[in-house]
Amino acid sequence: MTEKTRSVIAIYPGSFDPITKGHLDLVERGAKLFDKLIVAILENATKEEPLFAVEERMEMLREVVRPYPNVEVDSFRGLLVDYVARRKATVILRGIRAISDYEYELQMALMNTRLAPDIETVFMMASEAYSFLSSRLVKQVFGLGGNISGLVPPVVEERLKRRVPRVG
Ligand code: PNS
After folding, report:
1. Which pick of 20, 33, 164, 167 has the fewest CB atoms within 10 Å?
2. What is the pTM of this model?
3. From the alpha carbon of 79, which atom of ligand 1 is closest?
């Protein structure tokens, strides 16, 4: 048996606005696969105005990943592959829910491979229980008065209550 000398660092990038139980499930499973897992929030998102500031998202993430000693929370700007190289990581971890995620994820993975061929994207299937879950839907359902308990960690629910005015 050869002794393991290499430690594999993976980056789990995303917006995490806010983190859901689906994200957390991936963190938990990823933490078992890799020696170190860095959950990295994109700072310069162009998609839409975020609900939570990056700092708030980092605070919530830090709280929920506390049980996992090999998981770190960070944020990054610019190209993901540059950040991955800076952190001496070799893997990008992403979750796939339904087939509808596939095209977007494939495009990103292929672009990242083109930019940095040595960085591997690893996909994990979302657990069945969370395969319908997204941050966008959580915000929408919560804002419209729906019940989101069990879909986000309690710290996120607390912050949503303080942040989002509920309709109806
Ligand atoms: O959770 P999200 O919003 O689907 O995550 C998207 C993310 C952060 C993984 C993606 O937007 C990203 O990597 N952005 C950084 C910019 C970049 O590297 N773009 C080129 C690769 S496609």
Report:
1. 167
2. 0.95
3. 18
